[in-house]
Amino acid sequence: MPAMAEALESGAGVDVKTTSTSTGQTAASSGGSSEDLPTVGDIIESIGFGFSQFRATMLGGGMFLADGAELLLISSVAKAVSHDWNLQAMERGMLVTIVFLGILGGNIASGLLSEAVGRKSVITWSYLGLFTFSIASSFAAGLRTLMVSRLLVGTFIGLGQPAWNSIGAEIMPSAWRIFALAGAFCMFSVGELYSASLLLADDPSLLYLHWRKLLRRGAIPGGCLALGALLFLNESPVYLAVRGRRKEAQEVLTEMHQQNGITQVRTDYREPGNGSPAKGTNGTWFELLSRQGEIIFGQRLRGTTFVIMYSCFVLNFCYYGCMYAFPQVLAEVLAYRSAASQLLIGALWEFPGNAVGFLIGFFVPRKLGMKVYLVSQAIFMSAFVTGARAVAHGSSNWFFELCLYVGYYGVKTVGTAGFSVVYTYSSEIYPTEARSTGSAVNIAGGRAGSMLAPLVFEAMTDATGSFHMFFVSMILASLLNMCLIDTLRFETANMRLADSVDDHIDQQAEVASIVASDKKQSPIVASGKKYGATTSSSGSESLA
To answer: Residue 87 and residue 179: Cα distance in Å, rounded?
Structure first.
C-alpha cells in the first residue's frame, strides 16, 4: 500500500492512451506483481476533482431536480385538480402522498437493480420513466388514472436517487465526496425554482392554474436529462471493476483524467478482493438479494444500518413535515402579512443551506457533522415555535418576531444541509457490492418519514388544536437522533471506499497496526490519507 501511494504521488504511470486489459499484462507492464498496483479508489484519488465529476453531478444528480420540480408542482396543482373533478379533501391529499409512496417503492427496488444492471442504466431508465408518465398524467381522464400515473412518476424518481448516491460516492476523491450530494440537493432547489417560475407564469395568484399544461412543462427537464445521461454519463469504474469488466473500467478512468486535464495517469489497477468479481455480483436475483442482506444487516453493519435508517427518517420527517406545515402555520401566524413571500424567501435559503452542508462535509468528520446539523435543527425549531406561538397570540415584541424569522430561515437552511451530511455517510458506509442496496434501504427509511409527516401534523393539530406539539415532536426526534450518532462505529470522512467486506477487515487490521506503532501521531493523519482507513480518537473504526 505505501508503495502504491508513493507511485501515484510521484507521478509514476503510463500515457493515458496505453492501458492494459488483463491482470497479467498490467502486472508485467508495471514491473511487478498485481499486488503492487493501486486500487481503483487510489487512481480516482490521483485523478482528483474536476470537470468529470462536475458533469456527472449535473447529469446523475439531476434526478433530484426532477424530484423538487415534481413535488412542488403536484402540491400546487392539487387544488386545481380538486376543483375540476370535485374531489374530497382526502382524495386531494392522496395526490401528493401517492408520489411519496412511489418514491418509497422505487428506493427499495433501486439497490438490487443498480447492483444487477449498473448505476448508469438505472439512472437513464429513471429519467425516461419520469418523463413518460409525467406526460401521461397530464392526459388523465379521471382520479384513478391520474393517481396510477403519479405513482409511477414517484417510482421512477425513487429508482434513480440511490443509483446516483452510489455512483456519486464512487467517482469522487474522498475529500470531495460530499459534493456528490451537496450538488444534487442544489439541483433539488433548482427544480423547485423551475416549477415556481412555471406557476408564476401561469397564474401568480395560484387560484386558476392550468394543471395539465403545467404537468407537461414540468416533464421537460426529465426528458432533457434522459438524453444527456444516455449520451454522456459514464458508469462507475468502481462498479465495473467489482463486476470484472476491466477494459470498460479502464476506459472510464481514461476519460475521467482526460476531462480533468491530466495527461498521464496509471489506469492499471489491482483487482478488488481476491482478483475475481465479488461474490455478490453473480448468481440469481434471489442469491444477489440474499448477499446484499447479509452485508447490510450482518453482525458488523446491523447497528449502523438501523441508526442511519432512523437518521434518514428524522431528516425526511422534519424536512417534509416543515414543507407541509409552514404554509399553514405562516398563514395563521402572519395573518395580514404575506405568507407566500416568506415561502419564496425560505426556498432561497436552501441554497446557502446546501453550501453549509458542503462545508460541513468537507471540513468536519461525518459523525460530528451529523451532530452539528441535528443540534442546530433543534435550536432553530425551538426558536420558531417560541416566536410563532407568541406572535399567533398577538404579541408584537421584537424578540418574538426575531425568533420567528430566525427560526424559520434557520430550519430551512440546516434542514437542507442535513441531506448532504446524512446521505453522504449512508452511501460511504457500505462496500461496493452492497452500496446501492444499502443506500436504497436508508433512503426508503427516509421516505417513510416524509409520508408520515403530513399525517402526524394533521393528527396532532386535530388532537391539540395547535401546531406546537408537532414541532416539539420534531425537536425531540432530532435530539434522540443526536444521541444515537454516538453509537455509530465507523468514521468515513476522507477515506477510500472499500470494495468488499473483506477489504474492510484488511484495512482495519492495517490501521490498527499503524496506530499501535505510533500512538502519538493522529490516526487520521497517520493512516487516513495513505491507507484509506482510520480509527478515530473516540475509538470508532473506518469502513472505507
So the answer is: 43
Q: Please list, in sequence order, all residues whose beta carbon lies within 8 angstroms of the beta carbon of residue 390, skipping any fewer than 6 positions away.
A: 397, 400, 403, 404
Q: What are phi and psi of 236, to 5 degrees?
A: -65, 125
The count of other CB atoms within 10 Å of the CB of residue 259 is: 17
Grid coordinates representing 389 are 406561538
Query: Could you tell me the three cell numbers for 532?
Result: 484509506
Helix (H/G/I), strand (E/B), else coil: 396: coil
| Calpha distance 372→355 (Å, rounded) | 15
Q: At what angle do helices 468-485 and 366-392 cross, to 10 degrees?
A: 160
Measured distance CA(392)–CA(305) in Å, rounded: 41
Rounded CA gap, 116 and 122, in Å? 10
- Give the separation between CA 240 and CA 248, rounded to whole angstroms: 7
Whose grid coordinates read 482495519?
508
The grid coordinates listed for 53 are 465529476
- Evaluate whether 192 touches 346 at the Cβ level (below 8 Å): no
User: Which residue in the block uniquely carries the three cell numbers 417560475?
Assistant: 197
Compute the distance between CA of residue 404 and CA of residue 381 in angstroms, rounded to an integer.
9
Tell me the pTM: 0.67
In sequence order, what are the residues at sequence separation of 6 or more whose Cβ sits closer than 8 angstroms to the Cβ of residue 116?
285, 288
Tracing cell 395568484 back to the chain, one arrives at: 205
Alpha-carbon distance 154 to 159, whole Å?
A: 9
Q: 38, 1 in Cβ contact below 8 A?
A: no
Q: Which ranges of 48-88 does DSSP label H, i.e. alpha helix?
A: 51-60, 62-85
Pull the grid cell for residue 314.
428524522
Contact criterion met (CB below 8 Å) for 427 and 293: no
| Tens digit of each residue's pLDDT, the chain (544 residues) | 334 334 343 343 334 343 443 444 444 444 445 567 888 888 888 888 899 999 999 999 888 888 888 877 877 777 678 788 887 766 776 777 788 889 888 887 887 788 788 899 999 999 999 999 999 999 998 888 999 999 999 999 989 888 888 888 889 888 787 777 778 878 888 888 888 788 777 776 566 778 899 899 999 999 999 999 999 999 999 889 888 888 999 999 999 988 988 877 678 888 776 544 444 445 566 666 677 777 788 777 888 889 999 999 999 999 988 877 777 777 677 755 555 667 778 778 888 888 888 888 778 888 999 999 999 999 999 999 998 888 777 766 888 889 889 999 999 999 888 888 898 888 788 887 777 778 778 877 888 888 888 778 877 887 888 888 999 999 999 999 999 999 988 887 777 666 665 665 555 455 445 545 555 554 444 334 433 443 333 334 444 3
User: Hey, is 440 helix, strand or coil?
Assistant: helix
